[in-house]
Amino acid sequence: MPDPSPPAEVPAAERPPRAYLGWSLAATVACFLPLGLVAVYYGLRTNSAVLDGRTSEAARDSRRARRWLVATIVVGLLVYLILVGAFVMLGAFSS
User: Fold this and answer.
1) Using CA atoms, how far apart are residues 41 and 28, in angstroms rounded to an integer?
2) pLDDT in tens, 33-44
3) Mean pLDDT confidence for 57-68
4) Are 67 and 24 in contact, with CB atoms under 8 Å apart?
5) Is residue 16, in this structure, part of any structural domain at all?
6) Is 58 a member of any domain?
7) pLDDT at 2
């Protein structure tokens, strides 16, 4: 019979670093493609390093993936705001 006790928490030091791959893919599609592709690249490198057991390299690539993910979202939002501002200035939304 299986043990009914809940699984023990894995200490933070033993957990593999996050790859941010799902978020990177979503940000790539929704925000800004060029920077998003770089975030996806580092997310894939993180997964590869985790599978190969290279934890220090995985942690470094995870931080890079997170930085590029944030940059993708910020730049994407800025581009959208600039576009909306330009359309407003040109009168695209006036009746």
Assistant:
1) 11
2) 999 999 999 999
3) 98
4) no
5) no
6) yes
7) 66
For residue 11, CA distances in Å to 14, 16, 64 come to 5, 10, 23
Neighbours of 72 (CB within 10 A): 26
Alpha-carbon gap, residue 18 to 24, rounded angstroms:
12
Q: What is the DSSP letter of 17?
A: P
- Answer whether residue 60 is part of any domain: yes
Judge whether 42 lies within some domain: yes
Report the domain count for the chain.
1
Residue 5 structure tokens = 């006790």
3 confidence band (pLDDT: 50, 70, 90): low
Q: Encoding tokens for residue 81? A: 């705001």
Helix (H) or strand (E) holding 3: none
Cβ–Cβ < 8 Å for 56, 64: no
